[in-house]
Amino acid sequence: MALSRFTQVGFIGLGAMGKHMAEQLAIKLPDHARVSIFDVAKPPIEELVRKYPGKIVGCTSPRKVAESAEFILSMVPEGSHVKSVYLDEKTGVASIDLEDRVLIDCSTIDIATSLLVKQHIAEHHPSASFYDAPVSGGTLGAEKGTIAFFLGCSEQDPMIEILRELLGLMGKQIIPCGKPSLGLAAKLCNNYLSGLIAIASAESLSMGIKADLDPRVLSRVFAAGTAQNAICDRFNPCPGIVHDAPSSKGYEGGFKVQLMKKDFSLAMNMAESVGATLALGNRGLKTYEAASNDPECFDRDSRVVFRYIGGDEKWAEKFEK
Ligand code: NAD
Q1: How far apart are CA 25 and CA 9, in angstroms?
Q2: Which pick of 136, 182, 240, 310 has the fewest CB atoms within 10 Å?
């Protein structure tokens, strides 16, 4: 199908993820397409406008983005920011007539806010559509255009082909999760699980090192055994096992521990609202809260829980003796 339908695309929120996603659009959309961008911070707007002159156009508000774009994506931190991007009476996307616009929020936020925005759009702009489409794959995936999108709609949605085409410019997998807000529900389930796997992996590695097991050997055991998991294989919490993992670079880059705390807490709220029992939820949340408040862990990749629980980062000295 032709990409030529995407002549006017908007992107709001140009942080660690959004900046790369907007760049993927600028690189892959045809020459005549325009990408209108906005962020509350000016530097990322200026940087992208400089890098893609004529292709990327800076705007002064979400409303201005909506005035010049038919397809609008957003990637901001939390529900309060999404609300302001779409519903602010003066500067929000929905402050103009949104005839036929397609709005896609990729932020990981609470389900109630996402449904509130969707409801508002449906009531006031019936020809427009709003989708939750949170992502997974991290900043590296965003930079390479390989992230996965979890879409809050069914395979039968009338826009599905258009959504696949547009999101396919920024990611490799697009998974329709059933209906509105289920993209977010899927994302929260995923991060709850991967957050717990990271804590359990950190604990097992720390325990093994203290019991005189070389963590390189132990990681091979996990990979061969029933404990095999993507966190140990690709984001091993113990430094020096996976060389390009954040843990091997002082836990720089990756998925910040505060973002894991936010997502973990959102997942627990969802569990409560649907009446699901979580045996490990409270311990997990307390661990990520405490790690986020620890100056040695704050702002670092969430697999820094290995450091937080006192894992031996200098294990190599022990095994060289
Ligand atoms: P970030 O903090 O790096 O970037 C957020 C950007 O939004 C910032 O540039 C900020 O200035 C901008 N912003 C805030 N309020 C705004 C507003 N009202 N209008 C316009 N711009 C506004 O965050 P990020 O890492 O890019 O994450 C964004 C979302 O994606 C979060 O919900 C996060 O949980 C999710 N996410 C992040 C990752 C990751 O690895 N970083 C991975 C998957 C999902």
Answers
A1: 8
A2: 310
Burial class (CB in 10 A: 0-12, 13-18, 19+), 89: exposed
Residue range 63-96, pLDDT digits in tens: 999 999 999 999 999 999 999 999 999 999 999 9
The verdict on whether 187 is a catalytic residue reads yes
Shortest-distance Cα residue to atom 42 of ligand 1: 138
Task: Quote the radius of gyration of the chain (alpha carbons, Å).
Answer: 21
**Nearest Cα to Cα of residue 69 among 81, 80, 59:** 59
On whether the CB atoms of residues 130 and 118 are closer than 8 A, the answer is yes
Map out the domains of the chain with their CATH numbers. 3-179 (3.40.50.720), 185-320 (1.10.1040.10)
Give me ligand 1 centre to Cα 259, in Å: 10
Pocket of ligand 1, beta carbon within 6 A: 12-18, 38-41, 44, 75-77, 81, 84-85, 107-108, 135-136, 138-139, 255, 259
Q: What is the pLDDT of residues 146-201, one digit of tens each?
A: 999 999 999 999 999 999 999 999 999 999 999 999 999 999 999 999 999 999 99
